[in-house]
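G., the chain you wanted modeled:
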Amino acid sequence: MIPDFVSDLRRAVGPDCLLWLPGVVAVVCDEHRRVLLQRRSAANLWTPLSGIVEPGEAPAAAAAREVEEETGVRVVVESLAAVTHSPPVTHANGDRAQYLELVFACRPAGAGQAAQVCDDESVEVGWFPLDALPPMSARMREIIATVEEDEPAAWFAPAP
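Predicted structure as tokens:
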């Protein structure tokens, strides 16, 4: 779903303007060393849960909100694991964007929460063992590995 503030921006600048937007990526790992993933409707690719930070919203709160909205799983955000950025994206509707990504390490707020598809952003969601991930981009694997390493400080993407 496109947030209202992005729709307002699009009306003002049009779809060809590359928007730089704040985003969150929630890498949710459970006590069985499984990660919660979604197969996204737009690209049919498996990824961690992600979304756009709303104006005035704390990024960690946005990460928790996105996970619950998309899977029904309530999470605790434990730490900021990485700060990176996506490549430029052209969405199916023609809108162009690029995302500053705040990657958070998360855990379920309670044991045994079943994940389910809760909106039209996903065609499938599920828990996957870290050593048996479904097909996904190398970039998404790197993001998950960064969280799995559990470094005490956030990792920052190097300048090109």
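The CA atoms of residues 37 and 126 lie 6 Å apart.

Shout if anything looks off.
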